[in-house]
Amino acid sequence: MLQQIRLRIIGIVTTAAILTAAVVHAQQPALFREYEKEYTTYPFSDPNPVPLLTPVYPYFRFDGFTTTPVQQKWKVVELENDYIRLLILPQIGGKIWTAIDKKTNRPFLYDNKVIKFRDIAMRGPWTSGGLEANFGIIGHTPNCATPVDYTVVKQADGSVSCYIGVLELLSRSYWRMEIRLPKDQAAFQTRTFWYNASALDQPYYHWMNAGLPAGNDLEFIYPGTKFLGHDGESSEWPVKDNGKKISWYKENNFGGYKSYHVFGKYAEFSGAYWHDTGEGMVRFGSRDDKAGTKIWIWGLSRQGMIWEKMLTDRDGQYVELQSGRMFNQNSEKSSLTPFKHIGFAPFATDSWSETWYPVSQTGGMVKADASGALNLNRKDGRVVFTYYAVKEISDTIELTEGNSTRYRKAIHLQPSQVFTDSVTINGNAGNLTWKLLNSNFTYDEDPKSDNLSRPVHTPADFNWNTAYGQLVSGTEAMAMKQFDRAEKAFAAALAIDSNYLPALVKYAELAYRSMRYDRALHFARRALAIDTHDGAANYFYALSNAATGNQVDAADGFALATLDPAYRSAAYTELSRLFWKQHAAVKAIVYAAKALEAQPRNIEALQLLVFMQHRAPAAVATSADHSVGTPAQAIETIRLLDPLNHFTAMEAWLQQPNAANRDKLNTVIRNELPAESYLEKAIWYAGLQDTVAALKLLSVSPVNSEVILWQDALTHKKTDPAKADLRFSFPFRPETYALLTRLRNQQDHWKWQYLQALLLQAANRSQEALSLLQATGDTPDFAPLYAYRAALAAQVQPGAPGIPADLQRAFSLDSSWRYRKALIAWYNDNGQPQIALPLAASYAKSHPADYIMGMLYAKTLLLNRQYAASDAVLTKLNIIPFEGATEGREMYREAKLMQAISAIQQKQYRKAAGFISAAKIWPENLGVGKPYDQDIDLRLENWLSYDLSARSGKPDLRYLEAIVAFEPKVDNTVRNFIPSNAAVNEWTRKELQRLAGTSGSTAKAASTLLASAGRDGAAEPHTATGTASPTADSNQRIIDAVGALR
């Protein structure tokens, strides 16, 4: 059986080569080399020791960014053949930093000559350039700026592969990507292998992100009829409803940031072409591998172009070509549309591949695949077509018009060679078909060819308040790790129908995730009482029984779960583990084999098989009828799938602990958090009752508090709390929670309470976590505990009396900026800015370059109504922004307008007018660029200008006209309006009514404006996502102050 699985896997691994096989001349094998290269680098720093209260936990953020560069050496893996050269940086997420087309000696991916980290990713640092793989829950992968595991392999076919990957802690899954450069192609492939190593459904998110140089000659070549936004909304492509042909970069000179998930055709490629230089690039992936395509543009106003200097020194602006497994990068609101999330099934494996290559002298593309790209257009009564070959090809071109063959010619092309020809055809456009007869390559000129009829709108009468509607809401929340929201939705579903089986099952799953195993059993049993054969109900019934020690019911549940194909392989895997722990080795091996029969690439089952074969060789012979093969065969199978597999390297060292095997182990674990890699597998071995192996692995792991806890627990020692350094110790595994429970029963200590509270909060048990932290009192001498306890209390019990005391205690233990900031922010948010001011002022004066605290100082001055002083502070700040941040500009505007209001109160109208004019400026030292004028909500500024004119005795209706004319809208999930400015429309309406009741030309003009404004003022769109406008709090304070003038 294992040999058959191996053969199937070999077939999967080599499919691309078999499908594109052609007669080729002998080329030199592709080469690789590793070296260090010095780059001008703007590094990141200052990791946050306070645990995060977001789904990004157990990762931590980095908060330090700089405008001062250093010269830093970075590890480079270079792959090269006769056509392409790739530079890969394994210490920066394994990003392909650039790709060079040797034909033109120019990069076809954005080649950033500097490494300039900025606060953009979920953990903070990210840098533009090249091609990156993203996994996690949303956005850039948690490891996009830090080292990943990697290895380089010379393949038997002459290609060379660099494998990158890491253990992804958010989902306890392992992702790997092979970057493969064939010896005989002007292209490279990325082949992703991703497996869920856990028994639970996990978030499923993946997008590739290729940086490309921006330019007015850049055309995005994305077949489609519509584009989707992050919220699942749709609009027209390639010509938008505003008449702009947005497939051209230069035509995006409107609005803000752009996210176009192009959709609507059965397409398998996307690309870009720079018409001035005659160069382009192509990404190809089969439809089942990559259905999602996206374009990201920072925007062409200064709002977006400011990022050019933020992310590079001299290489210009960039755009992004992205590809994903799903149609869009779906935000929370996308759940209300057809474009929902999916999950990653227990112990499931997924894989896909893409091809990336340059093109030149084609004039663009209309169709591309892994072998080459075609452009075809009509000019002066002739059809001109150009084909760019990626690999050597011998084929015949056929061009037909309707049923008539108009052209046929045999071609033989070498990689990167271009073939161009033309034929006279005067018929109507849309009736041509261009083919390569020996290949599966056909282009149909009909613009409606390959159009999809897939719906893009959810039925308007879909009722979200039904049991099913709430189930969908909860399931979507779980996919985003929003477990609290999921629990509320499932509870709402069961309130509607207490016997709604799918909601009972999901509640059981959620309770199991939160380590409330008795509660999980309660819901699973209720579900089984309705349908005793339900696969999911049996699976979570079994998991919960296994967790509570009821092995009989666990085995029974897993056995029945195998009836459901969705849970079959996972259930067999768990049965294998269960019987091994019962010392029933034969049964355990049999069930591991069955798990592989159900899912041949189940890595967990393969690892169990190797583990058990090494430790119970006699049982293998007894189970020979299942043809499990030898341990060496299973190991080879794993390595074929995952050359970076930690288990095979660990097992080799455990079986033969020599220097060579130790070195091999070091070569597959090179990531940012190696202790987590060792812990993951040591806990795995301990769970299979191999304490010796677990301890050996922990003995070579980097040391942290969790490593020490496990070492002591496995040797039945009491852990000395003094040995446990809690800095950057963020446990997240249920196994560690159980260990801490046992430890606390033996010797309770505040450190164990703190660690267990972190686990409880991550498991959606925030109230219990807070109670546990509160029980530690003020004994701990660890500042992050108090900061975390205060943040958690603010989330669970807003206004809790102990919050300021905790923040003060944290600050007394550690006076660094982070704890000072938290304390100042609390005073500001709770109506005590006068107490915050001296704390902010003293730090800002001694640390003038700290823009984070400088911004907080400016805000504190604003809240203390010291507007001129705040204005002065902001003038001197140089803010390094984060994506979407506008706070510096918001405070600047507030400071100016509040000074204007003060001047009006003092009847200093000219001075007030100056402040209003200044409020319209966008100083870029504040880290924000100016949007297009039509995307700036100036209603409040215009009202103040009108007020000034009225006070001067000459009311200028042009300001009221501008207020009425402003069009609030949401475009591509970004709004152009400030919601609280709706009050200005109401003021305007009332003022126009007053003026209309007077006499003369002013009355007539007011009546006309009043008619266009409507009786109820301008309607604001309901959807108001995005951060392109100032925050409600800042604007509301100004609104309140203006209201007092009236």
From TrEMBL:
UniProt xrefs under InterPro entries: DUF5107, TPR-like_helical_dom_sf, TPR_rpt
Region (Disordered): 1013-1036
Keywords: Signal
A Pfam family assignment: DUF5107
Biased composition (Polar residues): 1024-1036
Record SMART domains: TPR
Domain named DUF5107: residues: 54-359
Keyword Iron: no
SUPFAM superfamilies cross-referenced by the UniProt entry: TPR-like (SSF48452)
Signal peptide coordinates: 1-26
Highest taxon of source: Bacteria
Protein name: DUF5107 domain-containing protein
Source organism of the structure: Flavihumibacter petaseus NBRC 106054
